[in-house]
């Protein structure tokens, strides 16, 4: 006879906690993106001709980050539903995904590094003149 497995309540709470952590991170990424869009728009309009190219580039990066934030939200919702179903059916894992979090982290490091390097280059160019 097949043995019934018992799913503990803490597994459902862990699923919910993971969902909330992903949502928190997507809101953080979206907030950084919105701030970059706002600053680049202000620079484009008010800081003069020399900032146009940089502000358009930063705006493109910010929009890509906003897309990532939306994808993170969709990923969180999908995983929450999928893991909830797996817990209800008392299925054995896998409950983790190791590829997507690393990919998102790498993309965020690249985007923010580009913005940082651009700001440093701009600062050095401004201090020379």
From TrEMBL:
The DUF202 domain, residue ranges: 12-83
Primary subcellular site in the record, as a coarse category: membrane
Topology in membrane: Multi-pass membrane protein
Bilayer-spanning residue ranges: 21-44, 56-78, 99-124
Location(s) in or outside the cell: Endomembrane system
Domain of life assignment: Eukaryota
Gene Ontology CC terms: endomembrane system
Keyword annotations: Membrane, Transmembrane, Transmembrane helix
Family annotation (PANTHER family): VACUOLAR TRANSPORTER CHAPERONE 1-RELATED (PTHR46140), VACUOLAR TRANSPORTER CHAPERONE COMPLEX SUBUNIT 4-RELATED (PTHR46140:SF1)
Protein name from the UniProt record: DUF202 domain-containing protein
Organism: Symbiochloris irregularis
């Amino acid at each position: 006879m097949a043995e019934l497995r018992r799913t503990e309540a803490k597994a459902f709470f862990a699923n919910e906690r993971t969902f909330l952590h992903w949502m928190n991170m997507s809101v953080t990424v979206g907030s950084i993106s919105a701030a970059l869009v706002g600053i680049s728009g202000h620079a484009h309009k008010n800081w003069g001709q020399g900032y146009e190219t940089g502000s358009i580039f930063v705006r493109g990066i910010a929009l890509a980050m906003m897309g990532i934030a939306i994808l993170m939200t969709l990923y969180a919702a999908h995983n929450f539903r999928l893991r909830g179903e797996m817990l209800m059916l008392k299925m054995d894992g896998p409950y983790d995904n190791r590829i997507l979090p690393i990919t998102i982290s790498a993309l965020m490091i690249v985007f923010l590094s580009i913005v940082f390097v651009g700001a440093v280059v701009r600062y050095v160019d401004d201090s020379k003149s």
